[in-house]
């Protein structure tokens, strides 16, 4: 058995700098580390090898310094490393990255491909599903438990879903992306590091995997980062005084009431744009439905679609995959001019390949201008699979969209733990984006709008992955998960265990993208309290500072923990020159060309203060 684990070498966020001339990250001298979900995926792979035998191969696409990441993977138990380095890879977006990595994986012909659920820098979570589509393998994303049956050539995976957990099974080879819980975090000891020096690392170039330079890098990427907006936060900086805690609580309550923060009354939602819908190319929203009907995020997307459709000159269409016409009235009231229904028993429950086939066919047949999906677990599982099938650019987890002066849809993507917001543009049509739940505002429902319903002829292929069982969360937790998308699934472990304070994993947030988003989601909702304010950069800023703070603390916490761990080891085992050498090498930065995410033309927090033209 062979397992390939894709590991991304990411910069330590607090050390990033931006070159205003090239509009690229300066990597020289910036220490890096392996993205944390990837290390857990690797640990899970090593555990599977212990059970079944075989080998674990760590694969990275990155600059020369990324080799240090492979050394860490070898120390953690990988048998060999593959370093995919080629100057032409610089500036690759997720599709170009997936194309390059898939070509490297084909050479290895593994039984299983493991990736992190998302990187901790750009955090799109798209590379895994895009690779699955390019390899034509089944996929299971956000997996927290994984077992293999090599005799039957199959896997069983428990994965996170939007309303709880589900267990799926499918054939090997398969692509699995790892959630945080898939394995405990591990740290190599001195003996592991010594053993790693004897293990091989192969270098691979584009020519070795049979790709041309035009298929990767900026030229082979359908999306590009069009600039950077710094996230600046303005706070009131007020102190609440009082002699006793009770008096302070009273004073705080009065102050909050005075500024309207506790004012729950009144419906601040804006009405939908009036007048007949445009006759141009439609804007699509892929509807998500829950047990009690249309999810709030779908209403949020429909309101944004209605706003964009005004400028783009077309109607708003909601596509319901696996639902019925029952929801048409609610979708029309929320902003849909037309409801497209793709119904088939094979579409319930959700399985990636069936939904991807239906959505891809519908896009080809009807040619929408823009397709919006929710950045839920389902949306992030489905959108990249469809985008890769159609060769489309995809923006992951956008928090806002607008139309620029050239009529292009700019998709605002937060990254680097929320430190920046980058407008992403796409060369391909339709533009496709997943949008974070709870950040945009739904319109006031208009029950007088009458839906036009079209039933789509669907061709549902036999799905290779099948849902074996589902374990929904209790109602309250599911509600939180629906509102915040991820909050309920990623509670800090000390709370899950009923403890009041964490007793380990100081920097947990940095290894749990979802927790970061959860806090930023809450901020996004709070930002909506300002009446009549449009969701521009200020609102984006309000949506993000919690995320950034958690990221920074998380990074510090993680480094401190590693330092302490190494110090304890050194105390036990005597001075360890190799550890010091490894750490020094980690800080050496490295190359000129930065394949993978490394060369992305973005600004880090430090120099992003001045707003940049796009
Ligand atoms: C600010 C910013 C925003 C961006 N937004 C977008 C966007 O919206 N759409 C888009 O297409 N591109 C975007 N990019 C480019 C994108 O980050 C790069 O293509 C990157 O190489 C892969 O994306 P990711 O880090 O989001 O990967 P993810 O999909 O989040 O990574 C998931 C997993 O894939 C594996 N993986 C990813 N990259 C590598 C690698 N180089 N080597 C080995 N394994 C890897 C790891 O296992 C990782 O855990 C953005 C870049 C920046 C800097």
Blueprint (SSEs and pairs):
Blueprint: E1 2-6, E2 9-11, E3 17-19, E4 24-26, E5 32-34, H1 36-52, E6 55-61, H2 66-75, E7 80-84, H3 94-108, E8 112-116, H4 127-135, E9 139-149, E10 154-161, E11 164-171, E12 174-178, H5 190-196, E13 201-204, H6 206-209, E14 223-225, E15 229-230, H7 245-258, E16 283-286, E17 289-290, E18 293-294, H8 296-312, E19 316-321, H9 328-334, E20 338-342, H10 352-366, E21 370-374, H11 377-390, E22 394-398, E23 400-403, E24 409-415, E25 420-426, E26 431-435, E27 452-455, E28 466-472, H12 475-484, H13 493-496, H14 513-527, H15 537-543, H16 545-573, H17 577-586
Parallel strand pairs: 1-6, 1-8, 6-7, 7-13, 8-12, 9-12, 16-19, 16-21, 19-20, 20-27, 21-26, 22-26
Antiparallel strand pairs: 2-5, 3-4, 9-10, 10-11, 11-28, 14-25, 15-25, 17-18, 23-24, 24-25
Helix pairs in contact: 2-5, 3-4, 4-11, 10-11, 14-15, 14-16
The chain binds flavin-adenine dinucleotide.
Residues 6-8, 35, 37-38, 60-62, 92-95, 97, 101, 115-116, 118-119, 121-128, 223, 225, 394-396, 413, 415, 422, 424, 596-597, 600, 602 line the site of flavin-adenine dinucleotide (FAD).
